[in-house]
Amino acid sequence: MTTLEQNPAAGTPATTGAGRDHGLAYWAVSDCWNITRRTLTHYQRQPSAIVWQLGFPILSVLLYGYIFGSAMKVPGGGDYREFLMPGMFAMTMAMGFMNTAVAVVTDAGKGVVDRFRSMPMAPSAFASGRGAADLVVAAAELTILAVTALLIGWRAGGGVMAALGAFGLLLLLRFSLIWVGVWLGLLVPTPEAAGGLYAVAFPLTMISSTFVAPSLMPGWLGTVAAWNPISSTATATRELFGNPVAGGGTGVEEHALLMAVVWPVAITLVFLPLAVRRFRRLSR
Amino acid sequence: MSMSKSMPETRSRSASGYAVLAEGVVKRYRVKGGAEKRALDGFDLAVRPGTVHGLLGPNGAGKTTAVRVLATLLRFDGGRAEVSGLDVGREPRRVRSRIGLTGQYAAVDEGLTGRQNLEMFGRLFHLGNRGARLRAGELLDRFDLVEAADRSAKEYSGGMRRRLDLASSMILSPDVLFLDEPTTGLDPRGRGEVWDAVRALVAGGTTVLLTTQYLDEADRLASHITVIDRGRAIADDTPDALKNRVGGDRIEVVAADGGDLAAVAKAVGRVAGGGLVLTDDTTRRVHAQVADRVAALTEVARSLQDDGIAVEDIGLRRPSLDDVFLRLTGHGADAHDLEQHQDAREVAAA
Fold first, then answer.
1. pLDDT tens readout for residues B150-174
2. What are the boundaries of each domain within chain B?
3. Whose CB has fewer CB within 10 Å in chain A, the N or C terminal residue?
4. Which residues of A touch B135 (CB under 8 A)?
5. Which CATH class is domain B249-317?
């Protein structure tokens, strides 16, 4: 520490008070980008993290596709693996909120959130940057999953525009769940507790049309599954990809495309304010 | 900006002349059951620029709450607070560009290298890419982290992590640095590293408000100490003046044989002038406050020798801050800390 004697409190001219003349909106975007960049650097430094995140859906694809696949029937006919893939996409997007929650609670526990809050950065950047990074990662996950799916014979027959629309719907679901993740991340006390959310999240994603058509489930369970937001996204993407749909004929299934937009919008309208409120409450 | 830079000694001055000023600050919490708890109950604090000011208090006294209020992390319910001449309640955003905060946990991003940490925080302090890169380089050098700069912060030792944490809170060359228990959990070497860094910062003109559970830490670093208990400042002085307030020197005798403790206590009692004689069986220690230190030492030594009582050690010592604590708060400084964390959790759960 030889140079400590030279007034460490003073910075060089280049490092003091830069850029004060920009407006609040500029900094909201700039700070958001820097938080996004931070999260992406995590993945860049540890690419294996994304592989682990994808391990479960890829394993599920193989298990359900090849082990149970031959025993599975798709109502109305069609190949089970073709039916399964959009479900896996939707489930991966849905489970993504866990990553958001764990990342947020880890930051909060380590005092990183407090540091951000004690800095003159835009208060919205913490959540918006997190969300933007999560969407980039989700897009990467979808790409990897889609390539895996193509390798085992899945085909999207609905045309390029429809396929892009399907991916858009999947990312919309992921977007809406970012706010659930931020809210939960600020609610639970430790990363371990956040990990425990898997026990709740996993059955919730199963009670949907991910693996099995709701019409094949016991009546009440089938109704719950049909109304699950994940089912709407899964069914809508099946339609767009031109895969077997296996609709049960209920209203919510018939209007899957609409519901795949309505659900995420509703979730965002509920959980975005909750997350913001939770963040503000840190000051109380 | 450039003018204030050239005069760092005047940067922290406000109209009041203090770098940090709290007047009657009240912070209320609702606890379960609707009851109200005052974490800060008319808290006063005045920190002179360019000094290290220690904030000491027993468990749950409100130290961490005070720091979080002053660092704009918590809103407060009454009173007035000023940091670097800016009103904390009215201009939190401006306050944030003048302060640094190092909390109870090293707030470093373990997924990044030391350098990436500093560059990220630098960009978020709005230094721009180039500015953040330059500043990161300077701070790595100043906090002796150049060799470890491009290693993952996950691999850092406790002391290195704390230095990186300190460096992150120094990015904007803050007027006031809040250090909330900066050496908790560090080994002696790590503590020494942090102490050196803090002393150097203060030599450079930064004002430091330090909370600590280690009394020797406050004794070594702080030129001024505020003792807080039940959300209120109950004493405010230099470490020496606080010790004087507790009383004069103490004589301390360690008996060679535990069986002699009563006889030793009797000999010490003769010079204690009717004051309390404390005996500790496990350490075979007897101590009491004395008025005339030299006369007391001579007399006790002679009478013990006359009675043929062997002693392992005999001496005079200044009262420690432990004694100050005991006297001022009616309870010791041990079993600290737990409730502070509980406070933080209460906030999160509120």
1. 999 999 998 899 899 999 998 988 9
2. 2-108+156-243, 249-317
3. C
4. 11-12, 15
5. alpha beta
